[in-house]
Amino acid sequence: MGRPAARLYRALEGLFAVYKPPGVHWKLVRDTVETNLLRGLNGAPRPAPRSQVKFLPEPCRDNRVTLEASVLPVLADHPLVAGPQFQKLRVGVGHRLDVFSSGILVLGVGQGNVRLTEMYNSHNTRDYTLEGEFGRATDDFSCHGRVIERTTYGHVTKDKLESVLAMIQGVNQKALLTYSNVDMRSQEAYELAAKGSLRPQSKSPPIITGLRCLKFAPPHFTLEVHCVNETQKYLRRLVHEIGLELRSSAVCTGVRRERDGPFKLQHALTRQHWTLPDITQAVHCSWATWTGGEVNTVQLKKKSSTFKTQTVLARCGTKRWTLDMK
Amino acid sequence: MALSSMQMCRKCSFLLGMRKLCVELQRSSRVLCTVNRQRSTIFPHSAGVLRSLRTPPCARETQLRVCAFSDVHPTALPGQVSRTPPIHPVDDQDSQAVDASKQFCDSVGSPVDLLSLVEHRMPLEDMDGAPALSPFEEISEEEAIQIQAQPAMPPVSISLKDYVEQSETLQQLLLLGVDLWKLEQRPNVGSMLLRLDFQMDVKERLLFLKDVGVEDSQLGSLITRNPFILTEGLENLKARVEYLKSKKFNQQAVASMVSRAPYLLNFSIERLDNRLSFYQQTLGLSAEKTRNLVIRLPRLLCGSLEPVKENLKVCELELGFHTNEIQHIITTIPKVLTASKKKLTEIFDYVHNVMGIPHVLIAKSPQILNSKLLRIKERHLFLQYLGRAQYDPNQPNYVSLNRLVSLPDNVFCSDVALASLEDFELFQKTL
Fold first, then answer.
1. pLDDT for A231
2. pTM score, two decimals?
3. Min distance B368 CA to chain A CA atoms (Å)
4. Contact at 8 Å (CB) between A249 and A131?
5. In this prediction, does ipTM exceed 0.85?
6. Are A80 and B142 a contacting pair at CB < 8 A?
7. Measuring CA to CA, how many Å separate A216 from each of A224, B80, B238?
8. Where are the domains of chain B?
9. Residue of chain A nearest B167, judged by CA positions
10. Which residue intervals define the domain Pseudouridine synthase II N-terminal in the entry (chain A) (predicted)?
């Protein structure tokens, strides 16, 4: 006898990360995970069917019919009539990945969906690895699109690439300060900036918080990007624009997400492991990550920081410096 | 049925000289209740008939409720009511009434219709007009025992759960292993099942399927997938099986075909013949090979021919296979004919253009067209990363395409890639 399905389901509620292969839509990933979970849950033993007392006629001696009271299971509770215990699950998807990109996709089951919203509101950074190729430009910035331009790339060196990256990072750093909604002249802002945990507090355009070149072997190059509120299309466009800045052109051959908030690559489940026991294990691990991990502390700090800043300002009697929030 | 009742109404009214009523009756859809009321005035006996027929109340109620579930006007259920065997022997009054109605019919015409009419209408009249059994009437012990007090069934329901306890058909189907919860989701199937009578309709067909050679364990899944085989005419089913046998399919083949393609026996002989000749002529196969093809994938005979034609064109023009190569591919993997053409072209594109495998090799091991693109991609890239992606049979360290796609992950890693499963999973995370 295994555990009943309701208990299995309760152990399943929470967040976990899967590794989305390239070329597959995120919805297909979600549906596959849901189907596998349903199969696992419905394989669990069912509760015993209700029973009812029935008076059945029973022929006995001297041809008289008597009624016999008998306890029978209710037919409506038969598995073939009642159907599976779980017909669908609430499986929510965190920050999406489009078809051509791969990497970590965070999924939530049941009550875990609440934490997905929390994760969205905490504006975590995500890490990406971008594969680029110099020499051509396409209409959708990926290597699958229609080629609209071909260029030479002999003049591109690693130094030039890095200077362009530094320039982009500088621009984004400025935008980050603008959107982070913290008083720039406060001690709190200094501390946050020194730790590198400044975040936009509300909706913002995509902001890159870190950018570096991992590998440079023309025409191929690899970038590592840390960013907030991005889309995969924005990242491909970034590669395109780096190409233009270098007086050449570039397409993005791969976008791969290596971290989404507290979820790292080693936590992600590959296709073979999208089964009930493995996912339950991953959800269990993610609770540990969540309670002791990065996300919660960052959120707390943010709340306390705004509070402290305001009190400090009030005590000093200075007029609050407002940011230009356009 | 409706027409004959109309005729009868007209004649009744003619007898009674009630022309006005006749017009009304023609208009109203509930012709028959009123007719019954009329008749009870004509025949003093028929009130007695009603009373005697009322005695098994639960059976009648069941039928009425069934009508309600099926959401069809009671006139649509001629067969069922008349078929239910009367639990009590027909008493004298009843037979008198039937005789009387026969005489009436003879004078009026169409005796069969009227007879069935009398029988159908009883339950309705039972509910409507006649007074209930007096609570003071004495009944014997025997009768008292046979009265079954069952909870009333809901008149309308979205699920078959409410009817399982009372319906014999559903109970027997349940014992066979039919997934009733799947069937109730299909439109009109629930009411169709409730209308069937197990002894009359279902049993014969089940015995027939057993005669064909379908195994007991397969019957449940067969009916789950095709419940309409229970309403198909038995002569038709027999004729179709005979047709298949006349085309030299042996008993076992027919049995496996019927259980794997449940809709096979619901299609007409012309259609089956058309399909068989199409496959034989278009693919240019011999009779024996066509038979093998159809036995391996019997749903070829059920489905539309358009996608199959498209797939053949895709193989010929887009993928560029020769006719004999197509023949070979199809006889080894018949599923290629029903696969999605988008999937076929994607896989072929990757295998031919990226992995660089010529047509001849693909035609030799067509299993690769049946597998998943993602699987091929991952394994090819892993082998390439390890430096083992060598698909030319003339070179050393040759990896056959069949082994590439058909082995499970752990065997692939240990035998083909000579790496550990953990390495393969880590590699998957870098794609």
1. 92
2. 0.74
3. 19
4. no
5. no
6. no
7. 12, 81, 74
8. 2-127, 232-303
9. A75
10. 87-232
